[in-house]
Amino acid sequence: VCDPNPLPPPVGRVTLWPRQHHITPPERLKLATAAIGRELRERCAELRADGRGVEAERLEQRTNADVALLNELGWCPGAEHYSRHLGGRAEGEPPVTLLDYLNFDTSDPARPGAGSD
């Protein structure tokens, strides 16, 4: 028996949830988890130096659990807190926004560019 139409029927609507459909390449994920670990050690040392050992312990436990989930599943609850590392951005660099994906033609007189009078 042969199906005359092997293609699946068209899909009318699909919902894409960011945490499940944002793809971080394995090599970038490996670099990100290493950077998260370095930053964690620095921050925990600061907290302990300030006499805030309990906060350092809680931060360490939570971050290590998140890193384990990132390595195992590729995402974790609150992954947006690690977006700088996952995106490969430098400290202080702004995150990517929707406007970065839109093409604005500032020479079009009907649509003035940002900062115009």
Automatic annotation (TrEMBL):
Question: Which InterPro entries does the UniProt record give?
Answer: P-loop_NTPase, UvrB
GO annotation, cellular component aspect: excinuclease repair complex
User: GO:BP terms for this protein?
Assistant: nucleotide-excision repair
A GO molecular function assigned to this protein is: ATP hydrolysis activity
- Where do the TM regions start and end? none
Instruction: Report the protein name in the record.
Output: Uncharacterized protein
> To which species is this protein native?
Micromonas pusilla
Source lineage: Eukaryota, Viridiplantae, Chlorophyta, Mamiellophyceae, Mamiellales
